Amino acid sequence: MFERIPDPSMQLSSLYETDFAEWIDATVQQLKERRFTELDLDNLIEEMESLGKRDKRELQSRLIVLLSHLLKDKYQPEKRSNSWVATIAEQRRQMLLILQDSPSLNHYLVDIFEKCYATARKDAARETQLAIGSFPEICPFTLENILDEDWFPAA
Question: Is residue 134 domain-resident?
């Protein structure tokens, strides 16, 4: 395949708008060569901020799905399926990978836990067609339990 060499006369900020992959390559190259004055700082800062937000959004989303499935498992154990078990395992695995890469996000997980539970409770009620009151207002699981790959709620 052909390797495209970035046109040095093209400013990085315009490259950001026209070819994101090339902008990344050029930015990485400039960083490696310590050509800091040539960096497109505004877009680089924006991208760095979005990386942190992405992991937080992903943790939040996975926690909601995990909590919802754990609630369904606890309150409708007769309907437990391989699909539920696989979903629980996958959500845990992905959350643990994120936390392994960014241990500081453990604090974020604690901060969003109650809000995520409230959403998961609504999701579980809708999916099971049980009344929302069937699920406790306060999460019956600890964060440690939730992230334990071998733990499932007792019916």
Answer: yes
Is position 88 within any domain? yes
Q: What was the pLDDT predicted at 52?
A: 82
Q: How far apart are the first and last CA of the chain?
A: 58
- Confirm if 40 and 12 have CB atoms less than 8 A apart: yes
Q: Which residues of the chain have pLDDT under 50?
A: 7-9
Q: Scan for tokens 């800062």, then name that residue.
A: 45
Q: What is the pLDDT of residue 51?
A: 87
Expressed as residue numbers, the domain containing 100 is 55-147
The predicted structure's pLDDT at residue 112: 97
CA dihedral angle for residue 75, residue 131, residue 134, residue 80, rounded to 10 degrees:
0
pLDDT of 6 reads 53
Instruction: Determine, yes or no, domain membership for 79.
Output: yes
Range 52-56 contact pairs with CB under 8 angstroms and sequence separation of 24 or more = 55/98, 55/101, 55/102, 55/105, 56/105, 56/108
